[in-house]
């Protein structure tokens, strides 16, 4: 398995840096990316769309629809916060604006390649999006509880009611809450909050989005509520968590 770097211009500087770091990267053209992904078993796609960000979004959507399990790093010269948000919504694993910080890019690739491919399949999570909470969450969940978990995963940014989740599991509200907590260690709404916090942690780890944008992307409409829940769960404020991450990166071992 290898990494596919798709770019119209070739991205020679990026390719050379990755090859020098021992990354098994192959280069291809943007127009051939869909066919290449379907024909070969690539572990990761780096999509460098240059200035043509619209084309990049279209290709990203095509790739994620055809092979949703392949993580995609989205690179563009025409970056903005709006473009970053759209790239994440279309399924990008991470977003980089040129000129790319090669240290951050290599660190991100290293993290993805070190993650077992079976990890996301075991927990029904898109590869590399975010980790499941550390509760008694298991692949051995009863089918109706697993449906409820997937229902919550798919609706992080929606206003989800307890009645709707219980209906997805085919249980009464009272019976569902009791059974859900038995298997996950949390109430449905606590579980949803933890999913949102894990998504926020991932965005802080892998993007430069500000706190307000992270809160919205993770499903929190109230910034003060987000900060309160984040600190309660992680022990850090969002800004302190990001500073801790930046300090830890200095000693990161690549590849």
Layout of helices and strands:
Elements: E1 2-7, H1 12-20, E2 25-28, H2 33-39, E3 42-48, H3 53-66, E4 72-76, H4 81-89, E5 94-97, H5 102-113, H6 118-123, H7 143-153, H8 162-169, H9 173-184, H10 188-206, H11 211-218, H12 223-234, H13 238-249
Parallel strand pairs: 1-2, 1-3, 3-4, 4-5
Order of helices and strands: EHEHEHEHEHHHHHHHHH
Strand content: 5-15%
Q: What percentage of residues falls in helices of 4 or more residues?
A: 40-55%
State Rg. 19 Å
Query: According to CATH, what is the class of the largest domain?
Result: Mainly Alpha
**Total domain modules:** 2
What does this structure look like?
- The longest helix has 19 residues, at 188-206.
- With 255 residues, the chain is of the alpha/beta class.
- The protein has helices at 12-20, 33-39, 53-66, 81-89, 102-113, 118-123, 143-153, 162-169, 173-184, 188-206, 211-218, 223-234, 238-249; strands at 2-7, 25-28, 42-48, 72-76, 94-97.
- The radius of gyration is 19 Å and the shape is globular.
- A five-stranded parallel sheet has the order 2-1-3-4-5, sandwiched between helices.
- Strand 4, helix 4 (81-89) and strand 5 form a beta-alpha-beta unit.
- It has two domains: 2-120, Response regulator (Rossmann fold, 3-Layer(aba) Sandwich), CATH 3.40.50.2300; 130-255, Homeodomain-like (Arc Repressor Mutant, subunit A).
In short:
With 255 residues, this protein is α/β, with parallel strands linked by helices. It contains 13 helices and five strands.
């Amino acid at each position: 398995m290898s990494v596919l770097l798709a770019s119209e211009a070739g991205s020679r500087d990026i390719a050379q840096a990755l090859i020098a770091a021992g990354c098994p990267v192959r280069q291809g053209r943007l127009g051939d990316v869909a066919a290449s992904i379907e024909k070969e078993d690539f572990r990761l796609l780096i999509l460098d769309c240059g200035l043509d960000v619209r084309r990049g979004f279209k290709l990203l959507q095509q790739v994620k629809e055809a092979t949703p399990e392949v993580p995609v790093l989205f690179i563009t010269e025409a970056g903005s916060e709006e473009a970053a948000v759209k790239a994440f919504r279309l399924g990008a694993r991470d977003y980089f604006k040129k000129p790319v910080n090669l240290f951050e890019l290599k660190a991100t690739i290293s993290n993805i390649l070190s993650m077992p491919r079976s990890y996301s399949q075991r927990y029904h999570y898109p590869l590399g999006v975010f980790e499941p909470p550390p509760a008694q969450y298991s692949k051995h969940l009863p089918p109706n509880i697993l449906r409820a978990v997937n229902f919550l995963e798919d609706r992080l940014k929606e206003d989800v009611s307890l009645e709707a989740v219980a209906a997805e599991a085919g249980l009464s509200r009272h019976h569902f809450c009791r059974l859900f907590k038995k298997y996950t260690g949390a109430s449905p709404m606590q579980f949803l909050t933890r999913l949102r916090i894990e998504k926020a942690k991932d965005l802080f780890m892998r993007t430069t989005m500000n706190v307000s944008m992270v809160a919205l992307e993770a499903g929190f409409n109230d910034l003060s509520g987000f900060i309160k829940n984040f600190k309660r769960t992680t022990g850090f404020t969002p800004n302190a968590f990001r500073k801790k991450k930046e300090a830890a990166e200095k000693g990161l071992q690549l590849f």
